[in-house]
Design a protein that fits this description.
The chain is mainly alpha-helical and 1219 residues long. The chain has 58 helices and no strands. Keywords: Cytoplasm, Nucleus, Protein transport, Transport.
Length: 1219
């Protein structure tokens, strides 16, 4: 072999790689294999973890991490070595069929060699010559043919490799495009069935690979996919269809596998992305299949549907399920594919006719007893109706029979919900779409469909009541646990029910009344005094829980029905039905409140309480969206019924009921067993309040309610357990309840303009609390340290929520006037005492809101020093917290985020908010010798360097905070500093490059990094341009001072005028323009000092000119990303590139020359032309016009690079010299 490694050692390495005894052994073996089988890709370079693991190895082992085997110098040599492994692997019996759990050393070698070949082909295919590409493809195909009994995962890996080679060589070589002909060797007459199975798997792998998008080469891969779609996809599909007909006649032992491979191939063909939309898996049930017009004959003439239906009747499960999945795809072929309306109608009616046969025949009903077939049939119904119009479906002469049997099938599906619960949403979708476009059908058809929907509405309602009891008994998962999925399902049910709303609604009301009556009877039994905790309570509790769960479902359903109201379509009868339903629900709520006040705790159920109250909250939300708002005056019928029964004749009265009844959810029962459910209920209640307070009209209504007024006056009630800072929860939503609560109250408080008096009354409880803390800090209070900490923890969380919803200057100034300077010392003192505690986190989060100038709310009068004072307080907080972070030790490496990085992230956030606030002139601090800004930036530099660059990049929240500071810092503050430490600059530039480099970076961080680089380059370029202009002017001045004509001119000017002015002019301008008085000499000295300062090179310019490897590194990173990757922030990436090129033109020329020379010889001339055009028309300046011209050039360059298969220059970060 070509490398110095024997096969036995290789087998051991591969066995360790795939079956490691430890992580360290796997990493070590991986580094050894990368040495002997290099991929020549940066992705395969030893990572930090690998290097750290290998640190304890021998010197020989460590040397392996430094490069690759000297016997392999190119990707093609490495690929030939892998090919040699596949050809010469010992123990061929190991490749025969063995149990999947047995992994022999030979199989591991084959798996590794195949995987490594795939990596080499994927990264370096363009470096292979055409004969090498064809030879490798032929070898893989021959290897698969010679090893038909290899393990399935080996065959799958080899098929994927063959598909990848075919894809990458598709455009440049016509031989790669003769796919079906080349696969025919597997389908020769008389060949074993196993070869046909492998042949179909190869075709499937190629289709799947062609359909796989790439972010890096999106345009090129799409071009390949389009070419494949237009030339080979249809022949493959037709070939698979013919094979399916053949498979129907075969009865060999492996025929089921053969049929499965054929059906999988057909399904993959129809799942192809025909129009380049790149759909995800979730969109599989949405939209139609956009097959090209060339496929028309398949669906119009070939009898494709007949073949599929015949196969479905003949095949057994699971192949029959695959057939039904293909039928589901056939039912969603785009309407415009067909040549005429008659052809489309014939296709539609064919499907409908077969559906009737499947549902009415004994054989079809027997097939549908299988869960998989039943589920796929439901999917087919949903996709069929989503694709074709109701008017076309209604033209079927047996439409009523078809819709009738579908209705019966749906009803059975609702009743059999335990058997196939995931199929119910598809049935609901089908009927929802039938109803939504029912107006396009004839009146008789509308009436017929509506009569069916009434029965279906009842059947689904009954199934939900059964589900409530089954969930309590543990037979099924409770759908109430996932409210989002539940709401989505009920929305489709509401569309169906509102089609014939009066009849369906009456049944819903009747069921609700019966359950409500039963609930009252059980309450009476429970309160009759005949039961006790030891006698009869268990039975009553069980019955009550069942009824309450059923009522919970009813409340959810009624809420969905009311929320499904469309204002411009709703009739008076429908509004009246909504009113009757709402009245029943309000009656149940009143009944439940009465019962909750007197219910013994041993009868209550925490889960039932959570679910029923969640349903009530959902009801309130839906009622508000339909009947409380700008158009509430049009809903007369609803409020007429509510007024007659409950005295609620206006939206304001209903809002009062909503606020009053749900307020109890914020209170705690005190039972520890109920804590989890009560916490979730608090979250959902606050979500309701937030929605109520978000509407312009509703928040003004809420502001006037008695309940709200009482809440504003007593907002820190001790009954609200979530306001207790000592209560902790692992649920993030629960821990944020306090902030959410005060965000909502702040929004309500400031809903009116003149709120100064209400504001001072609102903050009074905080004043009393903070005054007490101030006394405690002075030693005049009995509060203990832990009590003070908990009090401040709660207060600063409250203040954070309160200030977060402040949106204008008036509101912010009110808060600032109250908080500063009275209580800012408390924050600083608390930060000094508890910086490492969660209190420090709470203060920093509050201060981030306090210092943020969102909506330009932080605006002070021109004579006010408040902006400066605010930043000085921010500086004190940041300095105190930052110094503690610098000296804080870590308990373990795994605690980096919680113990240190999280605090640093908050420091960065507050600093970014302060520097970008634009409410303070930072030059004042330097002018008067104030260290507020300096100490903040010095701490920032220290914190920055305390974090390894790898960690800064790998923690997303930390990275976003850091680069937001860098973006602001480079914009307004960096160039104003007298100097920056070189270590800080090196760190900053390295981080800027590393965040851009990854193939899947954080787009926001990458954009901010590019912006920072662009600002730095722009400053340096502008300084150099100004310096050049100044030098040119000085040269002209020196020439003009020696000119006699100019001296005579100035002398003549000195004789003009009279009096003192004349005398002063003659003094200043005599003698050739040189001063002759002492005053004149002092002016000249100041001018000379100013000129001397201008001549001094700015430290940033000096640093970059002395360390051009920094510019080289940034250019390499950005140029390679722009030229070879497809990023969503492409424009941002292109902007700093111009400055990097203009600042270091020599390196740019050298790199582009290497770039051209590294390409294949036949492409170098074309690449050279593209490179030459890159700077065409670009000048040495940073004007917008020049930038735009360069961006256009690089867009053209990138497009040409994408069309050609180019090699990237193997210049690494180390080569640039920066590291």
């Amino acid at each position: 072999m070509a490398a110095t490694i024997d096969l036995h050692s290789l087998e051991q390495y591969c066995e360790t790689l795939y079956n490691p005894s430890s992580q360290a052994s796997r990493l070590h073996v991986e580094s050894l294999l990368n040495y002997h089988f290099p991929t020549f890709s940066l992705a395969s370079a030893p990572s930090a973890s690998v290097a750290a693991t290998a640190a304890s190895r021998t010197a020989d082992d460590d040397s392996l991490l430094k490069g690759h085997s000297p016997s392999i110098n190119t990707p093609i040599e490495s690929a030939l070595f892998c090919r040699s492994l596949l050809e010469n692997t010992k123990n061929p019996y190991a490749l025969m069929q063995v149990p999947l759990c047995v992994y022999t050393a030979a199989v591991d070698v084959v798996a590794f060699a195949t995987s490594r070949l795939k990596s080499l082909v994927e990264d370096h295919f363009s470096t292979f010559t055409t004969p090498e590409q064809l030879g490798l493809r032929t070898f893989v195909l021959r290897y698969i043919y010679q090893n038909p009994h290899a393990q399935p995962f080996i065959i799958t890996a080899q098929a994927q490799l063959f598909a990848l080679i075919t894809k990458l060589g598709w455009i440049d070589n016509e031989e790669f495009r003769a796919l079906v002909d080349q696969i025919q060797v597997f389908f020769q007459p008389g060949s074993a069935l196993v070869y046909r199975i492998i042949g179909m798997r190869l075709l499937t792998a190629v289709v799947s690979e062609m359909n796989t998008p790439s972010a890096r080469h999106a345009a090129k891969y799409r071009k390949i996919a389009v070419s494949f779609r237009d030339t080979q996809l249809l022949p493959i599909f037709q070939f698979a269809t013919s094979m399916l007909q053949t498979a129907m006649q075969i009865s060999e032992p492996d025929v089921e596998k053969f049929r499965e491979s054929i059906l999988t191939s057909m399904r993959t063909c129809l799942m192809f992305d025909f129009i380049g939309t790149v759909p995800d898996e979730s969109s599989d049930d949405i939209g139609s299949i956009q097959t090209p017009t060339t496929w028309r004959s398949v669906f119009e003439e070939s009898g494709y549907l007949d073949v599929l239906w015949e196969c479905w009747k003949k095949f057994s499960s699971p192949n029959s399920v695959l057939v039904m999945e293909s039928l589901s795809q056939a039912a969603s072929i785009r309407r415009s594919l067909f040549s005429s309306d008659d052809a489309r109608n014939a296709y539609i009616h064919h499907i409908m006719r077969e559906m009737i046969l499947a549902l009415k025949s004994n054989a079809g009903q027997s097939k549908l007893q299988d869960v998989g077939n039943f589920h796929e049939f439901c999917r087919m119904l949903s996709k069929f109706r989503s694709t074709f119009q109701l008017s076309e479906i209604c033209e079927f002469k047996e439409f009523e029979q078809w819709i009738s049997v579908i209705g019966e099938f749906t009803s059975r599906g609702f009743h059999s919900w335990k058997w196939s619960p995931n199929s119910v949403p598809y049935l609901l979708t089908f009927w929802s779409k039938m109803v939504s476009s029912i107006t396009t059908a004839k009146q008789s058809t509308q009436d017929y469909i509506q009569r069916i929907t009434v029965d279906l509405s009842r059947a689904y309602l009954k199934s939900r009541l059964e589900c409530a009891q089954a969930a309590l008994e543990g037979e099924v998962d409770d759908p109430l646990e996932s409210e989002e999925e539940l709401v989505s399902t009920l929305e489709t049910y509401a569309t169906i029910t509102r089609s014939k709303y009066v009849e369906s609604g009456q049944y819903v009301v009747a069921e609700f009344k019966d359950l409500s009556k039963k609930h009252r009877e059980l309450i009476q039994r429970a309160t009759a005094g005949s039961i006790s905790p030891s006698h009869g309570s268990s039975e009553i509790k069980e019955q009550l829980v069942i009824v309450e769960m059923q009522l919970t479902w009813m409340v959810y359903i009624i809420a969905a029905l009311i929320g499904g109201r469309i204002s411009y379509q709703s009739t008076a009868e429908q509004d009246q039905m909504d009113g009757e339903m709402a009245s029943e629900v309000l009656g149940f709520i009143h009944q439940l409140q009465m019962w909750s006040a007197q219910r013994p705790i041993y009868i209550a159920s925490a889960d039932a309480h959570l679910y029923v109250q969640s349903a009530i909250i959902f009801f309130y939300i839906q009622f508000r969206s339909s009947y409380i708002g700008e158009e509430s005056s049009k809903s007369v019928k609803v409020y007429t019924i509510l007024g007659e029964r409950w005295g609620l004749s206006s939206p304001n009265q209903v809002l009062d009921v909503i606020m009053n009844s749900s307020l109890g959810n914020l209170r705690s029962s005190g039972d520890p067993e109920w804590r989890k459910q009560e916490d979730q209920l608090v979250v959902r209640t606050l979500r309701l309040y937030t929605q109520l307070a978000s509407g312009y009209s509703s928040v003004k209504h809420i502001r006037k309610l008695d309940t709200t007024q009482a809440l504003l006056k007593n907002h820190n009630s001790s009954d609200f357990r979530f306001l207790d800072p000592a209560s902790k929860s692992s649920n993030t939503a629960v821990s944020r309840c306090r902030v959410t609560y005060y965000t909502m109250l702040s929004r309500v408080l400031f809903a009116e303009d003149n709120v100064e008096g209400d504001f001072w009354r609102f903050v009074k409880p905080w004043e009393l609390t903070l005054d007490q803390v101030t006394l405690a800090f002075e030693g005049n209070s009995d509060l203990g340290e832990e009590e003070i900490r908990l009090i401040l923890l709660g207060v600063f969380r409250d203040l954070r929520g309160f200030i977060s919803s402040i949106t204008n200057k008036k509101q912010y100034n009110l808060f600032f006037e109250w908080f500063y300077p009275a209580y800012t010392p408390i924050a600083l003192r608390a930060m000094e005492i508890w910086p490492h505690n969660e209190l420090g986190i709470a203060i920093m989060r509050f201060w981030n809101e306090f210092a943020s100038n969102k909506s330009s709310r932080v605006t002070f009068e021109s004579s006010s020093p408040n902006g400066i004072l605010l930043f000085r307080e921010t500086s004190n907080i940041l300095y105190t917290y930052g110094q503690n972070l610098l000296g804080r030790p870590l308990s373990s490496e795994n605690a980096r985020w919680s113990e240190k990085y999280k605090g640093i992230m908050l420091y960065f956030n507050v600093l970014a908010a302060s520097l970008s606030g634009k409410y303070v002139n930072f030059g004042v601090f330097k002018l008067y010798g104030d260290k507020a800004l300096d100490q903040v930036l010095e701490t920032f530099f220290s914190l920055m360097r305390a974090i390894p660059v790898e960690d800064m990049i790998s923690f997303p929240k930390l990275a976003q905070a850091y680069f937001s500071v860098i973006d602001v810092f480079t914009s307004d503050h960096m160039t104003g500093l007298a100097m920056m430490p070189h270590q800080v600059l090196e760190y900053m530039f390295q981080a800027l490059g590393e965040i851009i480099l990854p193939q899947n970076p954080d787009t926001l961080c990458c954009t901010m990094a590019c912006s920072a680089v662009d600002k730095i380059c722009t400053f340096v370029l502008n300084w150099m341009l100004k310096d050049k202009i100044r030098k040119d002017e000085d040269q002209e001045d020196s020439l003009s001072n020696g000119s006699p004509d100019l001296s005579n001119g100035r002398a003549r000017l000195s004789s003009a005028g009279s009096g003192n002015n004349s005398q002063r002019s003659s003094i200043e301008l005599s003698g050739g323009g040189r001063p002759s008085s002492s005053n004149g000499r002092s002016v000249s000295k100041r001018r000379q000092q100013q000129q001397q300062q201008q001549q001094e090179t700015h430290w940033l310019v000096e640093y970059l000119m002395a360390n051009k490897e920094v510019l080289n590194y940034l250019f390499l990173v950005i140029f390679q990303v722009v030229a070879f990757e497809n990023r969503s922030n492409y424009w941002s990436l292109s902007r700093p590139l111009l400055g990097l090129i203009l600042l270091n033109r020599e390196f740019y020329v050298e790199y582009t020359n290497n770039f051209v020379q590294s390409q294949l010889p036949d492409r170098q001339e074309q690449v050279q032309t593209a490179v030459n055009a890159l700077m065409e028309g670009v000048e040495f300046n940073t004007t917008s016009l020049n930038r735009d011209r360069f961006t256009q050039n690089i867009t053209t360059f990138r497009r040409e690079c994408t069309q050609m298969t180019l090699m990237n220059v193997s210049t690494t970060v180390e080569d640039s010299g920066m590291l």
